[in-house]
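[Discussion] Sanity-checking designs against the backbone

I'm trying to build intuition for which residues belong where. Below is a structure token string of 103 positions. I'd appreciate it if someone posts a full sequence so I can compare it with mine line by line.
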């Protein structure tokens, strides 16, 4: 008799993101994989909350608090996880480092 069971696939959870440039790609890639395998069908707000829960540290914590404030007031452009990833890349990625050098 064949049982109808879903195969359980283990997925590494995202490492904590502290805002360092060298962490951006790994954080986003791992978070994306986790969301696409473990949070299928979840509301975007739940996915965003999960991603934001892994953003912790001095400078990045202030950024997260400001973003959460904007989200609660519906003033943020980030309404989807992909938009949140873009905001993270723009704020903490290599392009952000290059902009800081110019300043």
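Best answer:
Here's mine. Compare freely.
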């Amino acid at each position: 008799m064949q049982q109808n069971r879903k195969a359980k696939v283990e997925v590494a959870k995202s490492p904590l993101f502290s805002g360092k440039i060298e962490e951006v790609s790994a954080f986003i890639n791992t978070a994306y994989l986790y969301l696409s395998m473990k949070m299928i069908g979840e509301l975007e707000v739940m996915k965003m909350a999960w991603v934001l829960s892994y953003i912790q540290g001095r400078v990045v914590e202030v950024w997260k608090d400001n973003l959460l404030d904007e989200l609660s007031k519906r003033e943020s452009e980030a309404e989807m996880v992909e938009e949140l990833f873009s905001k993270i890349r723009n704020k903490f990625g290599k392009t952000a480092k290059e902009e800081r050098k110019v300043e």
